[in-house]
Amino acid sequence: MSRIYRIAIDGPGGAGKSTIAKAVAKRLGIDYIDTGAMYRAVAYKMLENGIKPGDEDKLRAMLDDSEIDFSGGKIFLDGKDVSGLIRTAEVTRMSSECSAVAAVREKLVQLQRNMGKSKSIIMDGRDIGSNVLTDAEYKIFMTATAQERAKRRFEEMQAKGMPAVFEEVLADIEERDYRDTHRELNPLCRAQDAKELDTTNMTIDEVIEYIISEVRKNGDC
Ligand code: DC
User: Fold this and answer.
1) Do 83 and 191 have their domain in common?
2) Whole domain around residue 179: which residue ranges?
């Protein structure tokens, strides 16, 4: 019986974390936990219910009455598959805002820690190596320049036939970078023991192979 291990992937928005983490999970046969999707699910419910990040009491009551789960690569909010609904620009913006609120972080960090207790997982986000799973066996801090991340997102949107203006995509990324790195609670930062991987000039396959080779080196796969 092999040991349980956790892979923590952190980095700014658009660095390719979820694409990479999903592929690594598949190759290793372990679960993938997208913590950004959890903040997005909370943001979605706040928007649906007209709750603002400053409405502490209403927000706490909403969180107490919320269930967030993953199953088959989908995210479920109160039993409903919201995977497609949480990717709008409005939810993206609100997820960054609500992730600065203590009540939201407390609830989601606790859920995330529980998810990493009984099975091997790969989890991506902003504070996984530095806060959620500080004792993770593998920690990667994935970066790429804002220009490169905007280019990737812009091309992805174009491929999906979504209307996009490069300068707006870049401005959104820079604004979110600023908020995610400057918030008081668990801001985006590299854990001291995380390996920094600049993916600006790497292909997706090269990044995946790098992570798998780290896991292999330790005999975990
Ligand atoms: O990775 P993403 O774009 O889906 O994340 C949405 C927002 O959630 C992002 O702006 C920051 C926040 N987030 C966070 O604060 N901590 C995490 N572990 C993951 C995401």
Assistant:
1) no
2) 1-30+120-221
